[in-house]
Design goal:
CATH architecture of the largest domain: Sandwich
Helix content: 25-40%
CATH superfamily of the largest domain: Immunoglobulins
CATH topology of the largest domain: Immunoglobulin-like
Number of helices: 7
Order of helices and strands: HEEEEEHHEHEHEEHHEEEEEEEEE
Distance between the termini: 27 Å
Largest sheet: 5 strands, antiparallel
Shape: extended
Number of domains: 3
Radius of gyration: 29 Å
Structural class: alpha+beta
């Protein structure tokens, strides 16, 4: 159950952001069960005969209440279905948690997610090195560029070490010179020529197979809906704005003016120099509109175009001096997790639908 949740979390983080994500996992570890072929061996009686029906054989015929024939026997008030028992036994016999954890590590590396594991048991009287639960925690953190924090009763010190590790780091990528599409695991070694430098990097990766590449190319050739393509284009502007952070950004045609307020602005509305905001901020948008234009409605969508539950408060105002009408929208970022989002504003006039997209990045 926990490994399933971590696997889903890695996939979710890959979908909402491209930067490095640190996940603090507090657990005493997991026992990784491996396949057990003995569970598939039929039990024998003292004479050597099979004690249980062989899996796949027709179920025995029984007599139910009222003398009706059934394809399953009854015991007391409970009905026993041998087929369901065989199915569960087969699933348990082929359970491979070790392989599942390795797949989780691969998914986390592709999503750039690092796990920092903490064992809340603290200092143990026995040697935890060979404890299978401790080994699983160590394996998860070591192979995702995180840190396994064990054998300590000082939780504050452990979190301080995590904060120090996340303060500064280099995110380096490279293109492999091996073009073979064999789906095999390839080892990576990263070294530094400077003495005294501790390098933590991925230990390797699994190359794509020819079938996976062909499937990806086929998916890329499929037509993409214009709504999805527009969201992708909007998200691409975030990196441009990030590079220009601290400098004024010129508004493009039809783009709203972006403001924000929060602790960093003294809770005063200020023009946004980029589209990157902490969760403590509130974003305010304004766009000039003709007097006869309809009001707009808003929604916050994630990278996949899925609408979130975060409300967008739409309104309008009119300048007292010039009489210029403005459409406004306000979004409180506190309910959002760190990641990239798009504020979608739509208005309808007759048969014409107008969509205005503003991409933002929310940080912690």
């Amino acid at each position: 159950m926990v490994l399933d949740s971590l696997h889903d979390l890695a996939r979710y983080m890959e979908a909402i952001r491209d930067g490095r994500t640190a996940v603090v996992t507090v657990s005493d570890g997991w026992v990784l069960y491996k396949p057990d072929p003995s569970m598939l061996t039929p039990r024998k009686t003292g004479t050597g005969a099979n004690q249980d029906p062989l899996p796949g054989t027709p179920p025995p015929v029984g007599v139910g209440r009222g003398g009706t024939l059934m394809n399953r026997p009854e015991t007391g008030n409970d009905t026993i279905d041998r087929t369901e028992c065989d199915k569960d036994r087969y699933t348990l016999a082929n359970l491979d948690d070790d392989l599942y954890l390795r797949n989780l590590i691969g998914e986390a590396n592709r999503a750039n997610v690092s796990f920092y594991t903490i064992n809340p048991a603290g200092i143990l009287e026995f040697d935890p090195v060979h404890n299978p639960r401790t080994v699983s925690l160590q394996m998860l953190s070591d192979n995702t560029n995180g840190i396994a924090l064990m054998a300590s009763n000082d939780l504050s010190k452990q979190f301080t070490r995590i904060a120090d590790d996340l303060t500064s780091y280099y995110l380096i990528g490279y293109y492999s010179t091996n073009p073979t599409l064999d789906g095999r695991y390839r080892t990576i070694k990263v070294r530094s020529k400077r003495p005294g430098v501790d390098v933590r990097a991925r230990q390797g990766y699994r190359a794509a197979s020819a079938a996976e590449v062909n499937a990806a190319r086929a998916a890329a050739d499929l037509p993409v809906a214009e709504e999805k393509a527009a969201i992708t284009r909007a998200l691409g502007t975030i990196e441009r704005d990030a590079r220009a952070q601290g400098r004024a950004i010129a508004r493009g045609p039809g783009e709203p003016a972006v403001f924000h307020r929060g602790p960093s602005t003294g809770n005063q509305l200020q023009p946004a120099t980029a589209r990157i905001f902490p969760r403590s901020d509130r974003v305010h948008l304004e766009l000039e509109a003709p007097a006869d234009s309809p009001p707009w409605t808003g929604a916050v969508v994630d990278r996949n175009g899925t609408k979130t539950a975060v409300p967008v408060t739409a309104g309008e105002r009119t300048d007292t001096g010039s009489g210029q009408r403005w459409l406004t929208a306000d979004v409180t970022l506190a309910p959002l997790g760190a990641g990239d989002y798009v504020i979608e504003l739509t208005s309808t006039q007759g048969a014409d639908l107008r969509r205005t997209l503003v991409a933002i990045r929310v940080t912690q």
